Amino acid sequence: MLRLSSKIRQSQDVDGNSAFDPVLCELMLQWFCPRGGVVVLDPFAGISIAGMVASLLGFEYRGVELSEPQVKANRKQAAKFAAEPRPIWHHGDAREIATLCKGVAADFIFTTPPYPGIERYSDGYHPGGPVAPVRMRQQPSVRDPEEMRYGSSS
Fold it and tell me: Could you tell me what percentage of the chain is helix, strand and coil, using 3-state DSSP and rounding each to the nearest 5?
């Protein structure tokens, strides 16, 4: 398993973009997808890691990505390293997934949400109107595992 993930990691040129861990992709696909004929759908594809892992494990993969340069980079990456079936990326808005992936019956939806405020997805234009920044709520830090016990008042 780690041999496959290390091959994927070495093939990636993330160019400052967030990279989804190929080990996690591999584990999720192997644990939750039966062998043979599985279609993985990724509405927020980003870089090529999930598609490459799915391909190398023998799964059909369809990804939707808003960034056209990223889709082109993913296709170039797949041409070098992917197995059959080759992953397919569609350029477009995930809200149009029914049109972009018409006729695709997915068995497994696997994605990471967009990272507002971390990555730039457009120049402010969005088919549904301007893109509004989203503030992420900070998660409280856990000081001591004992504080997480059931019935704890803090």
Answer: 35, 10, 55
The pair of structure tokens assigned to 81 is 């390293």
CA distances to 113, 125, 137 from 118, in Å: 12, 17, 14
Residues 6+ apart with CB under 8 A from 78: 48, 51, 52, 55, 86, 87
Rounded CA gap, 102 and 84, in Å?
A: 21
Residue with tokens 């507002």: 116
Q: Write down the architecture of domain 37-113 according to CATH.
A: 3-Layer(aba) Sandwich (3.40)
pLDDT along the chain (154 residues), means of 10: 53 53 89 86 91 93 92 92 92 93 92 66 50 42 42 46
